[in-house]
Amino acid sequence: MDVFFLIIPSVMIAAILFAMYTVISRSRRATRAWGSGLTAEARCLRTYTTTRTSSGEHRRVTTVLHHVYEFTTREGRTVRFEEENGPGTTLEGDIVTVFYPADRPDQATAHPPARGRLFAESGCVLVFLGVALAFCIGFIISVEAAFSAVSEFSEVSDWDDVAP
């Protein structure tokens, strides 16, 4: 039974660590693109939305706006990339400025530089995930301590049953 109390928090810890990795890598990707100093004019080829419905008692529908852009690097390479959560005012055929790192133009972004906002958003998400991670670790430690105390108590009570 005690394995059950270890497996669930361990899976949660793995999911939290993956979420932390994703937040950090997305932040680094945007920072690299903005910091490279390379920009290009890109055409919005397509816009579309995806929806996700959460299950449970309170169903929520989340809509995400996607844009597909295409631009040409300074070296003449044509690059096409897709980005989520762009502005709703950008339509198919619009021209926007994109930022891209020289070595990875496929990791371009059409989001304008907002380092402070990115830092604040990423920081808040990482703090929340850190608290959840600490809770899971604390839960595992307290469950282990409780089960070891119960097993020690049962060993002691087994000795009390033995007559001298």
SSE series: HEEEEH
> Mean pLDDT, rounded to whole units?
88
Q: What is the strand tally?
A: 4
Sum up the overall morphology in one term: elongated
Widest beta sheet: strand line-up = 3-2-1-4
Helical/strand content category: alpha+beta
The number of helical runs is 2
Outline the biggest β-sheet.
Answer: 4 strands, antiparallel
Name the beta content range. 15-25%
Cα distance, first to last residue?
Answer: 34 Å
Helical percentage: 40-55%
Rg, alpha carbons: 25 Å
Low-confidence residue ranges: none
Please outline what is shown here.
The chain is of the alpha+beta class and 164 residues long.
Write the layout of secondary structure elements.
Layout: H1 4-35, E1 39-53, E2 61-72, E3 78-84, E4 95-99, H2 115-160
Antiparallel strand pairs: 1-2, 1-4, 2-3
Helix pairs in contact: 1-2
Give structural attributes.
elongated, 164 residues, single chain, alpha+beta, 48% helix, 4-stranded antiparallel sheet, 24% strand
Explained architecture:
The two termini are 34 Å apart. Strand 2 and strand 3 form a beta hairpin. It contains two helices and four strands; from the N terminus they run αββββα. It has 164 residues and is α+β, with helices and mostly antiparallel strands. The chain has a four-stranded antiparallel β-sheet, with no helix packed on it.
